[in-house]
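step 3/5: co-fold with phosphoric acid mono(formamide)ester
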Amino acid sequence: MELRRKDLLGIADLSPEEITLILDTAASLKEISTRPIKKVPTLRGKTVVTLFYEPSTRTRMSFEIAAKRLSADTVNLTVSASSAVKGETLADTAANLQAMQPDLLIIRHQAAGAPHFLARRLACGVINAGDGMHEHPTQALLDLLTIREAKGRLHGLKVAIVGDIAHSRVARSNIQALTKMGSQVTVTGPATMLPPYLETLGVRVVRTLEEAVAGADVIMMLRIQMERMGQMYFSTLREYSAHFGLAPRHLALAQKDVIIMHPGPINRGVEISPEVADGPYSVILDQVTNGVAVRMAVMLLLLGGERG
Ligand code: CP
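step 4/5: write tokens
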């Protein structure tokens, strides 16, 4: 029960069989988080370091919780209080962390390719927790687990991904993961946020939210990534919301058992109305719960531990 790789850098590297192995492992590990004592000795003696150069609530906390549930020792480097602020390079920071002999380094960085850069230089495993606008592989895996739990399958499902596709590593990882697993993906958003290469990824591109959600089994809303925009990509938030904000009226166009997803954090009232985000079709908090299980699975499979 092992991924035959040192690192998890992107969905692009994973085969459908590896994705299924991670999802099956995560599904079997979920039960640990419901026990009175939420801990197994599987990764006892292993050291997991988290290195987040960008803010995070869900990813960072769930990696740390996941590692603790597997009995690994966890260490967080707070980048704003580290020697990075004195000008230490990423390569030097990583080399110094490596010298302390961790088993896994989990990195989020604003630069696409930063985890790959470290993976080539470090003996320990590296997990990409989000690199710029490139990939967020564990987010896509937890999204697939959530969809599979709700629908019982991935193959043949109609999935609409809506919003700021251009700046979204979540969209890039999900498009790859869903198409590899046989889902039919439709994307939409403001024309300025739909990169021209999208159709080469095997997705259908449509102009309106109504077209995208028609008949959808799954609707995945994306956050507008203001922090990655050097310019405005739409006139006003009100206009964005009027055209691409998911509201209760849109749900009538989708399948009766549609599920609504969002990776978080949510801009309430912009890309999704509070009624939908908190409504009966929303699985947004299930995604967060599954984040712990998926990250447990990835760490266990990379480090080759036996389940306790
Ligand atoms: N979904 C996600 O990556 O959330 P955080 O930025 O809070 O980690």
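step 5/5: annotate
The chain has a mean pLDDT of 95.
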